[in-house]
Structure formats: structure tokens, C-alpha cells
Design brief:
This protein has 16 helices and 13 strands. By secondary structure, it is α+β, with helices and mostly antiparallel strands.
């Protein structure tokens, strides 16, 4: 779940308390759950008291859904007047992105996120690091022709899936091709000794596809037939065209188009509209205000927290990695959720606070910065836009003064909500403005650890087929950061931890040790939330000077 999800989580907590419902599901409507004008006024007060922004009851009732309310609140959070503490970018409906008129010779510029991804691909044209592999498990009597038509309609709806990025003078621009049929080759593995293994092999092969961004579309599709009633739709995107939220939107639209071709309204915006608007908006005073805010948070020339490593850091990052996984005990999941409710926080923030405690104990630092993905969808008109809107934001937490876990969760909550309110500064712009030229030589100058909390996914629905499953796991042998911790809800009391680690720096034994410590910190912290986190046994076990075994000792 991205940082935009933090606002939705806070609102879900308010709904639960005000409406007496256990949990607000995605797509739930405030009025359908019993919300009325009086309840909306109480919600206004809670938002004002806890999030520090003012929205009207009418706005909330008009929004009605949790997602739309989160967008309205997110816009309000970004609307303070210019100044060192404000974004300087009011978010009224009139200043939002609008559809661009089609004109001959139009060459829209890339968004800031696209520009960075294009540049990274030029550095290593054979890289597959920024591929987004997606596998849909389709069970039942599949109509292959209908699936092909649905895929064609999907790509016709979203220009970003038909866009190439030529750079005739060294400066890339968007070139959007007209709609055309999407190739959908089919691999029949039903006769293989192990169809499941062969399907996984094909999916892995597709995930390693190299995209030529100047010449070909950023999407490839393949259907794999395991049995008459069992198929895998393997979709591989380049990150320049989508983010995680976009992929989920696309597979749900694909399901709708499979069942009812032409049954979806045309998108109000295309990604090129957003890219032009973003560049126009992030200039002058608006850009200066965002830079000033982040300078006040991070200081001049911020540096990533130094962590112990098993091996020496190579001069050039290889991006080789591995993943360690485990499920939390159900009783611990329930304890974390209960603590979060009592602390007026969310499970998301509680898990992030535990990561801060781990990193502080491990490094000996009392000032730790972690990167989290920001959705970039805080405006209502961007909720259903397909494209790469995501932005990494640094979240800095201080652990000075021997805080207990309850206090640390409060500090984390404040830091996260501040980051949400100022997420519009592209990370590259932040680095350019705050980090010295020498510091920019470090591939990860501001943070080397990433955290992402993923809510339970809602599976797409394909008419006439059984329950579908969406797999976004992707390759398990790469790592963009030194460490990336994913906390994913798997339904009920099932929560999975996935620790992606750079294998040039860490071995499997250290990854397992870190997951042990993280789980221990969570359990000990929620059991004794006022005990200084530095004194927790699981945090002390990682402290500098504490003897531990690494793969280099074996």
C-alpha cells in the first residue's frame, strides 16, 4: 500500500468508530453504511482534529466512497498557502489535469517518473529491472477470442499502453500509436510432465523480456494453456507505462471488457494529459515551496542511514538480489491490529515503526530515513488513471530521547502524513535540489531501505470463469535497494513478510536474522509499548558490538 493509502486507512478507522462497522471494505459507501449529514459533520471534526485539514461535510457526502473521500482529504492536505511548511499548490478542481486537444505533430513531454525510467533504460538498454510482470490465473471455460477482443479494447482505451519514446535529438517525447490488435500468442503446456512448472518457466522467461522503448509498445502478452479449464494470462509491462495501482485497474477493466465489450465509459484523462499538467504545475513558486518543505524535513545534503553489511559495497550497483519470506503468527497479527486501534494509528504505520526500531537498533543511529512509495493519486481525477504516477518519498523518524513504541508510532504517523501532504516533489527533483553533486554519485543517496505495506487484493472478475487470482510477484533475483520490506495482507489474520535484499551486501543468514528481529520487535513492542524500543531484547540483539553470525562467518 502506498503512502496515499495511509490517508484511506485513517479514514477507514474513523468510519469504523463513527459508523460502528468492523472494517470498511474497498468500494464501500459511507451512506450505505448508515452515514448521514450528522455523521459527516462528526467525521469533519475527526479529520480536522487528527489530520489537521478542513473539508466540508458536503464534500465528504458527495465523495461517498472511501477512495473518493481519501482523494478529497489528500487534496485538502496539499492546499495550504505557500511557505516553508506548505506545498504552495492548492488543489482545487479548476487546476487539475484536463484532456489535451489532439493536434498534428503533438509531442508530449515525459512525466518526471517516465523521464527517470527512460534514462535508466538508456544506461543499460538490456536491463529488465523495470519490467512489471503480471500473471492472471484464469479457471473455467475460457473464450480465447473474447479475451483477445477484451485485450485489444483495453489497450485502445489507454494511450500509455500504445506509446513509444523516440529521442531523435537526445530528448525523448511521447509518440502515441493508434489502436491496433494486440498479439496474443498461446503456449499449450498441457502435455508437459509438469504443466505448472512449465507455466512458471514461461512466465519467468516473459518477465525477462527486453523492451525497446523507442520502437515497440511497453506491453507484451502471452496466454499459457495448462488444461482445457486452466489458463495463465502473462502480461509484461515496462514500468514507464504503469505502476502497481495501474496494473490492478487494468486487470479489473480487462475482466469487465471480457464480459461486456464496450461496457466501460471512456477514460476522462490519458496519461499524456497528466504528464503535461505535472510539468506545468511543478514550476516556479509551487516547486520552490515543495523544495523548501523537504529541506526543512531532511536538511541540506541528506545522507542515507549507514547500516552494517556482510560484504563490501561494490563501486557499481549490480541489482542482484534475493527474497526471504515468512508469515507472521495470527495471534501477533491480531495483537498488532489491536495495538494500532488503541494507539489511534494503523497497522501500516505500526509495522513501519517496528522497522525504524529495527534499523535504529542495528545501526546505532537515532535518526533513520526509509523510503515509501507514494501513490500520486490524491486528486479525484487521478484515481483511475493508468500510467506511472508513483513517487518514492523519504520518511524520516527520530528516535532520540529513548521513545517507547507508542511514542515512536506517533512520530511515525506524523512523519508519514507530512510526506503524504508533500508527495508531489519528484524524487529526482528532491535529490537535485538537496543532495550535493558529490552525494549524487551514490545511487541511493537519501535512503537505502524501502518499506511497502500491501493491502489484500480484490481479485478481478471474468464472466463465466471461476475465481481469478492475480500474481504480481515477479523475479526473485533482483534488488533495487539494499533492503526492501514488504508487508502484505493475505486475507483474515494472514500477513506475509517479504524481505528483498542486495546479495552483494547480505547473505541469506542475515536476511533470516533481520526477519527474526523484526518479528521479535513487533511482539515485544506491542506487549510493552511504553518500554524504550532500544531496550527491547530483539532490538538489542542487533546492536553494534553484539556478536552475530553472518554468511561470511560460515
Amino acid at each position: 500500500m502506498t503512502s496515499g493509502g495511509f490517508v484511506a486507512e485513517e479514514l477507514a478507522r474513523f468510519w469504523s468508530e463513527l459508523l460502528g462497522v468492523p472494517e470498511a471494505e474497498p468500494g464501500a459507501r459511507f451512506t450505505a453504511l448508515g452515514g448521514d449529514g450528522a455523521t459527516a459533520e462528526r467525521l469533519v471534526e475527526r479529520i480536522d482534529e487528527e489530520l489537521g485539514v478542513r473539508v466540508s461535510a458536503a464534500e465528504l457526502l458527495d465523495a461517498d466512497t472511501l477512495e473518493a473521500m481519501a482523494a478529497a482529504v489528500g487534496s485538502a492536505m496539499r492546499a495550504p498557502a505557500s511557505g516553508p511548511g506548505g506545498s504552495g499548490t492548492a488543489a482545487s478542481p479548476s487546476d487539475g489535469p484536463r484532456p489535451l486537444p489532439d493536434g498534428p505533430g503533438d509531442r508530449p513531454a515525459l512525466s518526471f517518473a517516465q523521464q527517470r525510467l527512460w534514462f535508466m533504460q538508456q544506461i543499460d538498454p538490456e536491463s529488465t529491472l523495470y519490467n512489471v510482470p503480471t500473471v492472471l490465473h484464469l479457471r473455467g471455460s475460457l473464450d480465447r477470442a473474447a479475451l483477445g477482443r477484451a485485450l485489444d479494447a483495453l489497450v485502445a482505451r489507454h494511450g500509455v499502453l500504445r506509446t513509444t519514446y523516440p529521442a531523435p535529438a537526445g530528448v525523448p517525447h511521447q509518440l502515441i500509436a493508434p489502436p491496433a490488435p494486440v498479439p496474443l500468442p498461446c503456449s499449450d503446456v498441457s502435455g508437459a510432465g509438469d504443466p505448472e512448472a512449465e507455466a512458471r518457466r514461461i512466465a519467468a522467461e516473459e518477465a525477462r523480456r527486453v523492451f525497446d522503448l523507442a520502437a515497440g509498445p511497453p506491453l507484451a502478452a502471452r496466454l499459457v494453456r495448462l488444461a482445457p479449464d486452466d489458463h495463465r494470462l502473462v502480461l509484461t509491462f515496462h514500468h514507464i507505462s504503469v505502476d502497481g495501482a495501474s496494473v490492478e485497474l487494468l486487470v479489473h477493466e480487462l475482466g469487465a471488457l471480457y464480459g461486456a465489450p464496450g461496457g466501460l465509459p471512456a477514460p476522462a484523462l490519458q496519461y499524456a494529459d497528466f504528464a503535461v499538467w505535472q510539468r506545468d504545475r511543478l514550476a516556479g513558486e509551487a516547486l520552490d515551496a515543495l523544495v523548501a518543505h523537504w529541506r526543512s524535513v531532511l536538511g541540506d545534503d541528506p545522507r542515507a542511514t549507514e547500516l552494517p553489511t556482510d560484504g563490501s559495497r561494490p563501486r557499481q550497483k549490480s541489482f542482484r538480489g534475493a527474497v526471504a519470506r515468512r508469515f507472521l503468527a495470527p495471534e501477533l497479527v491480531r495483537a498488532v491490529r489491536g495495538f494500532a486501534r488503541d494507539a489511534r494509528a494503523t497497522a501500516n504505520m505500526t509495522h513501519l515503526a517496528a522497522l525504524y526500531a529495527l534499523l535504529a537498533g542495528w545501526s546505532g543511529a537515532d535518526d533513520v530515513t526509509v523510503g515509501i512509495p507514494a501513490a500520486g493519486r490524491s486528486r479525484a481525477e487521478l484515481q483511475d488513471l493508468v500510467g506511472c504516477l508513483i513517487n518514492m518519498v523519504p520518511v524520516r523518524a527520530r528516535l532520540d530521547g529513548a521513545p517507547g513504541f507508542r511514542t515512536l508510532v506517533g512520530r511515525t504517523r506524523t512523519a508519514v502524513l507530512d510526506a503524504v501532504a508533500h508527495q508531489d516533489l519528484p524524487f529526482d527533483k528532491l535529490v537535485e535540489a538537496l543532495v550535493s553533486r558529490r552525494g549524487r554519485g551514490d545511487f541511493l543517496p537519501v535512503f537505502r531501505v524501502m518499506f511497502s505495506y500491501l493491502g489484500e487484493r480484490r481479485p478481478p472478475v471474468f464472466a463465466g470463469l471461476g475465481p481469478c487470482a492475480l500474481d504480481l510477484t515477479g523475479p526473485q533475483d533482483t534488488a533495487k535497494y539494499d533492503l526492501s520490506l514488504y508487508v502484505e495482507e493475505r486475507g483474515g489474520d494472514a500477513v506475509e513478510l517479504s524481505l528483498e535484499y542486495d546479495t552483494d551486501l547480505y547473505g541469506a543468514a542475515t536476511a533470516a536474522l533481520l526477519l527474526d528481529a523484526y518479528e521479535g520487535i513487533l511482539a515485544q513492542a506491542v506487549a510493552a509499548p511504553d518500554e524504550p524500543v532500544a531496550a527491547l531484547p530483539a532490538a538489542r540483539a542487533l546492536a553494534p558490538g553484539h556478536e552475530r553470525k553472518t554468511d561470511l562467518d560460515r
